[in-house]
C-alpha cells in the first residue's frame, strides 16, 4: 500500500471520515485513487492511497500520486474573480463577482466578433480539463462562436499520434489495453522514459518481465532509468526513428516475416510504403543513419520478426518531433505488416502524457477536429454536429494550432484569448514569443487554480477554477478507459467548474443550449452525440457512418448511475457488454476507413529540420523528471517531491563538458537562437556526445532563468502541428559567478525575503518540509554583496537573534537568525564546495528547540559529529539517499533491488525509484569487476 501524506485544510469540530474513489490528475496512466477526508477537532485532514479495485493500477501509485494530499492547500489559490493584469509583484488586482466577470467576457467577445469577425477570438485549453469541461468549451467555440480557433496543450504531446492513427486506422484510437503488456513476449519502448513518466505502467511491465521473462527494448538517445532493466538499449540519434522502423519494415519483407493473409484482407498501400523506404533496405545504411551498431540492429530486427506477441509503446520522443506523424506511422506499418495488431499482447500503443488527453480527443479538443471523432473539414460531419447541437454556427475549417495561434495573437489577428488550466508562457516553444503575444493582446482571460503563474499575470480577467479534489466529472486514460473524477472537497472561495463559467458567458451572449445543472447533464449529451448517426460494429456494412468512439451504452445513465460509474473502456455499445469485446480493437480486422481496411503510410527518413551548426553545435532534448509535473504549479507545493531533484539541470556528456569548459555541479548557460537559460550542469556518460538534456518543469515563479521553453525552437510537424521539443541546436558555456549561496527561510517568512532574492543574478526556489530554500549566485564581488544581502534580510526587530561568522579572506559568510529559540533563517555565502549539506540544514528547521551545540553547528555550517551524508535522495517515500544505498549494496553484496528493499525499505512503496536502485547495483557490480 502506498504511503499516506496528510494535509490539514481548515478547522472543524465534527469527527467524520469519508473515503471517495476518484482518479489521479497527473499522467495518462489514469490511476484510481482513494481519498479519505477526516474531520477532527484540529481540522480537516486528507489522506491519499491507490484504489485497489481500479483496473489501471490495482492500488499502486507513483510518488507524485502518493503525495497528492500535499498539493491541495489554498496558499497559492485564486479564490474569486479578479480584474486587471499583475503588472508588478506589488500590484493588487481588483476583486469582482462572477456576474460582472462573465458579463465583461461576453461583452468583449461580442465586440471582437462585431468589429473583427469570429476568427478574432481564440481559446487555449488543456488535458487537465475533465471531459465535461472540454465538451462544453468546444461546443461553445465551434458551434456557437463559429470558429475552430481552440487548441489544447495536448497539441504539445500527442497530436502526432492522433494524425498517425487517423492515417493508418481511419480514426484516432489506441487499439490495445494495459493488460496486453502482461501477456506479451516483447515490449519495445520508443522515445519513452516510462520508469519516470508512467511509473505504474512501467511497474506492471517489470512484474510481467519477472514472471514471464519478456524481452524489453528501449529506443532512446539517452540511457534513462527505463534502460536499467532493459535487455537491449538502442541509443538512436535524435530524429532518426523513421529510418529505424523503415529499416525494420524492409528487413521483415526481405526475410519473409510478412503476414500475407492479413495484408491481403485488411490493408492497403504496402507497395508505396516499401518503395518510399528503399533507402533503408540495407542494414548498414540504417546503422549509419541511426547511430546504432549493426550488432544491436540485428538483434532488434531478429527479435521483432521472431516474436508473435510484440507491444510497441511510443510516447513523447516520437510525437514531439518535426516528423512525429511519420515516426508513429513507421511504427504502425511494422505491426500491420506482421499482423501484430488486434491480438492479445500485440499492438502499437501510444502513451499519452496527461490525465485526460484522450478525453480531449473524444470531444474534438484540437483545432483540426470536431467532437465525437468527427472531422472539421467534412461537410457531412459539420451538418451532423450542427444538427445535433441545434447551434447557430459550426466551424467549417481547421483553426489555428498552438504555435500558430500565439503567433496570430502577437500579430493582432487574434484580439481576445481565453486560456484554461495551462501555462503556455512556460510550456510552449519559443516561450518568450508567447509572453510578447499576451503582453500586447487586447483581452486575455485565464481560468486557473493558481493566482501567480507565468501566464496568469497577463490576465485581464482571472477566474478561479476548481482543482483536483473539487472537480466532478470524467477522464479517459491512454487505454480508452473512462473513469470518474469525483469531488471530495468543497469548492474553496468562489471557485467554479470550467463548464459552468463557459455556460454563463454563452448565456450572456444570448446562446441557448447551455442550461446544464451538473457535469452529469453534459456527460449524457456527450454520450448521445457519440452515438448519433453512428452505427455499431455489426451494422457497419449497411451504412457509411461508423466510428469506434461510441458511448451508446452510457447515454441513458441515471444521475446515480453516473455518480457510481465504474471504470469502463470505450466503445460502449451497450452497458452490459463484455470487457473483452473492447479491450483490444481490430480483432476482426475491421478498421475505421470506409473500406474497413488499414492503410500503410509511406514515410520518408529525413533529418530534423533545424540542423546543428558551428554557432550552435549541440542538440537540446527536453523532457520530464520523476517527481515533478508540467510547470510545477501543483507538485512544487510538495516538499517531498522536491527532494529527489531539487534544481533545474543540464545533462551533458563528459567529453562535451571538457570541450566547452563545463564542470559538474557548476552553473552553465544554454543558449539557442530563441533564448537562453541558466542551469546546473550534470556531467553524465548516459547521454550521447553532441547532445544535452534539460527538464521542462521550472518556471519564473521558482527560478530566475530556468524556463527551458524559451530556448526550444518553434518548428512543428507539418501535419500535426506538434513542436520539436527533442531537437534544438544550442551552445553551452560556463556561467561564471563570484560566489554561490544558500538561504533557508522558515514557512511564513518566505515572502519577506523576495527583495533579497531579486538582488542576486541567479536563484532557484525549493520547497522543504518546514522552510523554503533558495539557491543563490552572483557576479558581484563578495565584499560588495554580503553586507547588502544582510541589510535586505527583514528580521530587524529586537525579537530576532542574529549569529554571524565572516571570513572575507576566504570569501565566506554565515548568518543564522533565531526567534524564541526557533531557527528562522540561515544564509551561507561561499565558494560552492564550502556550502553546507542542504538536507542537514533542512533538518534543523524540523527541531522544536535548538541546543547550544546546534547553534554552534549552524554557525559553523556543518554538523558537529560530521557523519557521512546520506547523499542525494533516491527513495522519496522512505527518505533513503544514494550513499546509504551504495554502502548497503557493497556491505551486503546485494545483486537484486528486492534485497535493497528488504534492508532499507527503499523501493517498497510506490516503486518509482526501483530503476535507479537497479542502476546503482549495476554500477557497484562494475566497480567490483574492475
UniProtKB/TrEMBL annotation:
<comment type="similarity">
    <text>Belongs to the prokaryotic molybdopterin-containing oxidoreductase family. NasA/NapA/NarB subfamily.</text>
</comment>
<dbReference type="InterPro" id="IPR027467">
    <property type="entry name" value="MopterinOxRdtase_cofactor_BS"/>
</dbReference>
<dbReference type="InterPro" id="IPR009010">
    <property type="entry name" value="Asp_de-COase-like_dom_sf"/>
</dbReference>
<dbReference type="GO" id="GO:0043546">
    <property type="term" value="F:molybdopterin cofactor binding"/>
</dbReference>
<dbReference type="GO" id="GO:0046872">
    <property type="term" value="F:metal ion binding"/>
</dbReference>
<keyword id="KW-0408">Iron</keyword>
<feature type="domain" description="4Fe-4S Mo/W bis-MGD-type">
    <location>
        <begin position="17"/>
        <end position="76"/>
    </location>
</feature>
<dbReference type="Pfam" id="PF00384">
    <property type="entry name" value="Molybdopterin"/>
</dbReference>
<dbReference type="Pfam" id="PF04879">
    <property type="entry name" value="Molybdop_Fe4S4"/>
</dbReference>
<dbReference type="InterPro" id="IPR006656">
    <property type="entry name" value="Mopterin_OxRdtase"/>
</dbReference>
<dbReference type="GO" id="GO:0042128">
    <property type="term" value="P:nitrate assimilation"/>
</dbReference>
<dbReference type="InterPro" id="IPR041854">
    <property type="entry name" value="BFD-like_2Fe2S-bd_dom_sf"/>
</dbReference>
<dbReference type="GO" id="GO:0016491">
    <property type="term" value="F:oxidoreductase activity"/>
</dbReference>
<dbReference type="Pfam" id="PF04324">
    <property type="entry name" value="Fer2_BFD"/>
</dbReference>
<dbReference type="InterPro" id="IPR041957">
    <property type="entry name" value="CT_Nitrate-R-NapA-like"/>
</dbReference>
<keyword id="KW-0479">Metal-binding</keyword>
<dbReference type="Pfam" id="PF01568">
    <property type="entry name" value="Molydop_binding"/>
</dbReference>
<dbReference type="InterPro" id="IPR006963">
    <property type="entry name" value="Mopterin_OxRdtase_4Fe-4S_dom"/>
</dbReference>
<keyword id="KW-0560">Oxidoreductase</keyword>
<dbReference type="GO" id="GO:1990204">
    <property type="term" value="C:oxidoreductase complex"/>
</dbReference>
<keyword id="KW-0004">4Fe-4S</keyword>
<keyword id="KW-0500">Molybdenum</keyword>
<keyword id="KW-0534">Nitrate assimilation</keyword>
<dbReference type="GO" id="GO:0051539">
    <property type="term" value="F:4 iron, 4 sulfur cluster binding"/>
</dbReference>
<protein>
    <submittedName>
        <fullName>Nitrate reductase</fullName>
    </submittedName>
</protein>
<dbReference type="InterPro" id="IPR050123">
    <property type="entry name" value="Prok_molybdopt-oxidoreductase"/>
</dbReference>
<dbReference type="InterPro" id="IPR007419">
    <property type="entry name" value="BFD-like_2Fe2S-bd_dom"/>
</dbReference>
<dbReference type="InterPro" id="IPR006657">
    <property type="entry name" value="MoPterin_dinucl-bd_dom"/>
</dbReference>
<keyword id="KW-0411">Iron-sulfur</keyword>
<dbReference type="GO" id="GO:0016020">
    <property type="term" value="C:membrane"/>
</dbReference>
<dbReference type="GO" id="GO:0045333">
    <property type="term" value="P:cellular respiration"/>
</dbReference>
Amino acid at each position: 500500500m502506498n504511503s499516506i501524506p496528510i494535509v490539514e485544510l481548515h478547522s472543524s469540530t465534527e469527527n467524520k471520515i469519508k473515503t471517495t474513489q476518484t482518479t489521479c490528475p497527473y499522467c495518462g496512466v489514469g490511476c484510481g485513487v482513494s481519498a479519505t477526508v477526516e474531520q477532527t477537532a484540529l481540522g480537516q485532514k486528507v489522506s491519499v492511497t491507490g484504489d485497489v479495485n481500479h483496473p489501471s493500477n490495482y492500488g499502486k501509485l507513483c510518488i507524485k500520486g502518493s503525495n497528492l494530499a500535499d498539493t491541495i492547500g489554498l496558499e497559492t489559490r485564486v479564490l474569486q474573480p479578479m480584474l486587471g493584469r499583475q503588472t508588478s509583484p506589488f500590484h493588487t488586482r481588483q476583486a469582482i463577482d462572477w456576474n460582472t466577470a462573465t458579463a465583461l467576457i461576453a461583452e468583449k467577445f461580442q465586440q471582437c466578433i462585431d468589429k473583427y469577425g469570429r476568427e478574432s477570438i481564440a481559446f487555449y485549453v488543456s488535458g487537465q480539463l475533465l471531459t465535461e469541461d472540454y465538451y462544453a468549451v468546444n461546443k461553445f467555440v465551434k458551434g456557437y462562436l463559429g470558429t475552430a480557433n481552440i487548441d489544447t496543450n495536448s497539441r504539445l504531446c500527442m497530436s502526432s499520434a492522433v494524425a498517425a492513427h487517423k492515417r493508418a486506422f481511419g480514426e484516432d484510437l489506441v487499439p490495445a489495453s494495459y493488460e496486453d503488456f502482461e501477456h506479451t513476449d516483447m515490449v519495445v519502448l520508443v522515445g519513452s522514459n516510462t520508469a519516470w513518466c508512467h511509473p505504474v505502467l512501467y511497474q506492471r511491465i517489470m512484474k510481467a518481465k519477472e514472471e514471464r521473462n519478456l524481452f524489453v527494448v528501449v529506443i532512446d538517445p539517452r540511457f534513462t532509468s527505463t534502460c536499467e532493466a532493459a535487455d537491449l538499449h538502442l541509443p538512436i540519434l535524435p530524429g532518426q526513428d523513421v529510418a529505424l522502423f523503415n529499416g525494420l519494415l524492409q528487413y521483415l519483407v526481405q526475410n519473409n516475416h510478412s503476414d500475407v493473409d492479413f495484408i491481403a484482407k485488411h490493408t492497403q498501400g504496402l507497395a508505396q510504403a516499401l518503395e518510399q523506404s528503399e533507402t533503408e533496405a540495407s542494414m548498414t545504411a540504417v546503422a549509419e543513419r541511426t547511430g546504432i551498431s549493426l550488432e544491436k540492429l540485428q538483434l532488434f530486427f531478429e527479435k521483432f520478426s521472431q516474436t508473435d506477441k510484440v507491444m510497441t509503446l511510443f510516447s513523447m520522443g516520437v510525437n514531439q518531433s518535426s516528423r512525429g506523424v511519420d515516426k508513429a506511422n513507421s511504427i504502425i506499418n511494422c505491426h500491420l505488416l506482421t499482423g501484430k495488431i488486434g491480438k492479445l499482447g500485440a499492438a502499437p500503443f501510444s502513451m499519452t502524457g496527461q490525465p485526460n488527453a484522450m478525453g480531449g480527443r473524444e470531444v474534438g479538443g484540437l483545432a483540426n477536429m470536431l467532437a465525437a471523432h468527427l472531422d472539421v473539414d467534412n461537410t457531412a460531419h459539420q451538418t451532423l454536429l450542427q444538427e445535433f447541437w441545434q447551434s447557430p454556427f459550426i466551424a467549417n475549417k481547421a483553426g489555428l494550432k498552438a504555435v500558430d495561434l500565439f503567433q496570430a495573437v502577437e500579430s493582432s489577428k487574434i484580439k481576445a484569448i481565453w486560456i484554461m488550466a495551462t501555462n503556455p508562457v512556460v510550456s510552449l516553444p519559443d516561450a518568450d514569443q508567447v509572453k510578447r503575444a499576451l503582453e500586447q493582446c487586447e483581452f486575455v482571460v485565464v481560468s486557473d487554480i493558481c493566482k501567480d503563474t507565468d501566464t496568469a499575470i497577463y490576465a485581464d480577467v482571472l477566474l478561479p477554477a476548481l482543482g483536483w479534489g473539487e472537480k466532478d466529472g470524467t477522464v479517459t486514460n491512454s487505454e480508452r478507459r473512462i473513469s470518474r473524477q469525483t469531488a471530495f472537497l468543497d469548492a474553496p472561495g468562489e471557485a467554479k467548474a470550467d463548464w459552468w463559467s463557459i455556460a454563463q458567458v454563452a448565456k450572456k451572449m444570448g446562446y441557448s443550449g447551455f442550461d446544464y445543472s451538473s457535469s452529469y447533464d453534459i456527460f449524457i449529451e456527450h454520450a448521445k452525440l457519440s452515438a448519433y448517426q453512428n452505427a455499431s460494429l455489426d451494422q457497419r456494412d449497411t451504412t457509411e457512418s461508423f466510428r469506434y468512439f461510441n458511448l451508446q451504452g452510457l447515454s441513458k445513465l441515471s444521475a446515480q448511475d453516473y455518480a457510481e460509474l465504474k471504470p469502463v473502456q470505450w466503445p460502449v455499445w451497450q452497458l452490459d457488454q463484455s470487457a473483452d469485446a473492447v479491450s483490444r480493437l481490430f480483432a476482426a480486422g475491421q478498421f475505421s476507413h470506409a473500406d474497413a481496411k488499414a492503410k500503410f503510410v509511406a514515410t520518408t527518413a529525413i533529418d530534423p529540420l533545424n540542423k546543428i551548426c558551428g554557432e550552435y553545435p549541440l542538440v537540446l532534448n527536453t523532457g520530464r523528471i520523476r517527481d515533478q509535473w508540467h510547470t510545477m504549479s501543483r507538485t512544487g507545493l510538495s516538499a517531498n517531491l522536491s527532494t529527489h531533484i531539487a534544481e533545474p539541470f543540464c545533462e551533458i556528456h563528459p567529453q562535451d563538458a571538457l570541450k566547452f569548459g563545463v564542470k559538474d555541479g557548476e552553473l552553465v548557460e544554454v543558449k539557442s537562437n530563441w533564448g537562453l537559460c541558466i542551469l546546473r550542469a550534470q556531467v553524465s556518460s548516459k547521454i550521447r556526445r553532441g547532445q544535452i538534456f534539460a527538464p521542462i518543469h521550472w518556471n519564473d515563479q521558482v527560478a530566475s532563468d530556468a524556463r527551458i521553453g524559451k530556448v526550444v525552437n518553434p518548428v512543428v510537424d507539418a501535419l500535426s502541428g506538434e513542436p520539436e521539443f527533442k531537437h534544438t541546436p544550442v551552445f553551452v558555456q560556463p556561467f561564471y559567478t563570484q560566489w554561490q549561496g544558500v538561504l533557508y527561510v522558515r514557512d511564513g517568512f518566505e515572502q519577506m525575503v523576495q527583495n533579497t532574492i531579486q538582488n542576486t543574478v541567479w536563484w532557484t526556489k525549493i520547497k522543504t518540509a518546514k522552510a523554503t530554500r533558495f539557491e543563490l549566485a552572483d557576479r558581484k564581488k563578495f565584499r560588495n554583496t554580503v553586507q547588502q544581502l544582510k541589510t535586505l534580510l527583514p528580521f530587524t526587530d529586537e525579537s530576532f537573534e542574529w549569529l554571524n561568522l565572516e571570513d572575507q579572506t576566504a570569501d565566506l559568510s554565515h548568518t543564522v537568525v533565531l526567534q524564541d529559540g526557533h531557527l528562522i533563517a540561515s544564509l551561507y555565502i561561499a565558494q560552492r564546495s564550502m556550502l553546507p549539506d542542504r538536507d542537514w540544514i533542512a533538518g534543523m528547521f524540523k527541531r522544536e528547540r535548538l541546543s547550544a551545540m546546534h547553534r554552534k553547528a549552524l554557525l559553523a555550517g556543518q554538523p558537529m559529529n560530521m557523519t557521512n551524508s546520506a547523499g542525494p535522495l533516491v527513495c522519496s517515500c522512505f527518505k533513503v539517499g544514494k550513499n546509504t544505498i551504495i554502502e548497503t549494496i557493497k556491505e551486503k553484496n546485494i545483486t537484486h533491488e528486492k534485497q535493497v528493499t528488504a534492508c532499507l525499505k527503499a523501493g517498497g512503496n510506490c516503486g518509482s525509484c526501483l530503476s535507479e536502485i537497479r542502476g546503482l547495483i549495476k554500477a557497484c557490480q562494475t566497480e567490483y569487476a574492475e
